[in-house]
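Our collaborator T.R. sent over the components below with a one-line note: 'Predict the complex.' Nothing else. No constraints on interfaces, no templates requested, no preferences about which chain binds where. So this is a plain run: every listed entity goes in together, and whatever single assembly comes back becomes the starting point for the next discussion.
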Amino acid sequence: MSQKITAAITAVGGYVPEDRLTNFDLEKMVETNDEWIRTRTGISERRILKGEGLATSDMVVPAVRELCAKRGIDPSEIDAMIVGTVTPDMMFPSTANLACHKLGAKNAWGFDLLAACSGFLYSLTTGAALVESGRYKKVVVVGADKMSSIVNYNDRATCIIFGDGAGAVLLEPSTDGMGIQDSILRSDGSGGNYLHMKGGGSLRPASAETVANNEHYAYQEGQAVFKFAVKGMADVSAELLERNNLTGNDISWLVPHQANKRIIDATADRMGLSHDKVMLNIQRYGNTTAATIPLCLWEWEKQLNKGENIVLAAFGGGFTWGATLVKWAY
Ligand code: UT7
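Returned assembly:
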């Protein structure tokens, strides 16, 4: 009898740019203050990718290189790459294609996946299915966003939140049941009104008018998104535990999308998890959209142990949201 194949995470890589944008810097740019930002969001600073000619793929490349070095593989061994992003280098070709070229991943096919802040979870679930099929042995799943390229630094409602970064994991087949166990993914396009970027797509192609109207910037109605996010992320995480006959006691870590510390706390409370089991780096990186979850895994990698249950959870533009249960493989 053939053994069931699961998709195990076998290495993690990450990259954050060197340049920091602190709350005190923002105080000089818009009417805000450090205390408001920290108490309302938990953020103190974010990283910004600066430099002519640098784009999202330039953060993907070092993250994937690190992952390959840790696993002792050459990029040419990668079978497929999925990049969750809302800030691709360009509309096409995909950031995955461009990054594979820069990496020398010449045997990989790949594509970008657009699910905003849930981009990494959607990509992880998709990548896991490729591995579980038995056809692919090394699938790289990336969450990467250069949010500074679509943030209006005159809009205090959005510019205080977002930052740039990239995180990546390698998925490989496991026959001892490690890796991705279960995912619940949801979407509701009626939420598009509250969080979107209107310009640059087929609805509103770039024109002098779309530029003048600031349509190429991320637009967010924060309070409305906040309400849906608290309920969406907490509900789906609790449902995932229930469906797998687990309680908060069985979970070693919650790895939440880092959008707002208050949303994260509400999710942990709903799962019955103490806050010291929650990965939190929002204070240093802000909201890096698709990159938040893999960047947490990257930072906490050394503290994770084989066999531990961890729950990844996200909510974002679309609306898209979901939760994934992972058994750590090393
Ligand atoms: O990652 C994708 C999904 N996104 C999210 O999950 C984000 C969800 N939303 C949020 O995290 C929060 O809504 C924000 C952090 C964006 C905003 O926090 P809030 O507590 O919802 O603030 P608010 O928009 O209700 O504004 C409260 C007050 C307002 O003033 P008044 O009307 O009470 O006088 C705002 O004008 O705070 C004011 N305000 C600010 N004050 C200082 C709004 N932005 C700022 C600011 N600095 N940057």
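Summary for T.R.: Residues 12 and 298 are 6 Å apart (CA to CA).
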